Amino acid sequence: MENQKNEAVCVTTCPGGCNVSMMSYKAATMLAKEGVCRFVRIAGEKAREKDTLRLQEADKMAEKWILVEGCEKRCGQEAFSIAGIQPDHCLCVTDLGIKRENKIDFTPDELDRVVQAVATMITGESDNL
């Protein structure tokens, strides 16, 4: 994906600590580093007020929101609901055929699948990386 600054596309990931949430986080930070989106980090239920303020502040400039959930628990969606924001696109990593496990390790192939899926949501193109 060519390096272009695009802070109007905001990507947020679930705040969990398992393999699929770690992949979500890594994919979002990689894409933000490439300049194709802005990564808006949330911390989860222990920091709801900060998450709400962070999401609402980013929403002032956001033209598109992409939420990357690790699994079907939908922890990220809860933070969006509390902030009164509806993401434009939502991806659940387990829907890509990656099993949720209570570990932080993942393979490069699994990460690539997540990066490709998020990049497609950002650009609408499937061969962008």
Please tell me about this protein's structure.
The protein is α/β, with parallel strands linked by helices and 129 residues long. The protein is 40% helix and 13% strand. It has helices spanning 19-33, 48-59, 75-83, 108-123; strands at residues 9-13, 38-39, 64-69, 89-92. The chain has a 4-stranded parallel sheet with strand order 2-1-3-4, with helices on both faces. Helix 1 crosses helix 4 (108-123) and helix 2 (48-59) crosses helix 3 (75-83). The longest helix is centred in the C-terminal third of the chain and has 16 residues, at 108-123. It is globular, with a radius of gyration of 14 Å. The N and C termini lie close together (4 Å). The relative contact order is 0.23.
